[in-house]
Specification:
Bound molecules: zinc ion
Distance between the termini: 5 Å
Number of helices: 3
Helix content: 40-55%
Number of strands: 3
Radius of gyration: 10 Å
Order of helices and strands: EHEHHE
Shape: globular
Number of domains: 1
Strand content: 15-25%
Strand order of the largest sheet: 2-1-3
Amino acid sequence: MKELRCADVGFECSEVIQGEDEQEILRKVAEHAREIHGIMEIDEETGQKVRSQIQDV
Ligand SMILES: [Zn+2]
């Protein structure tokens, strides 16, 4: 399993997103960002930040 803390990407948010692999995390992050943070599309910089903060659990 892998996980990503939304706070590690720079949001004031306690959400922890878990997934089987990086792709699943990225998909869930996109959904979470849209629903909770009102971000319609994750830009290149944020996408890189997300990938660099994904932890193995
Ligand atoms: Zn969040």
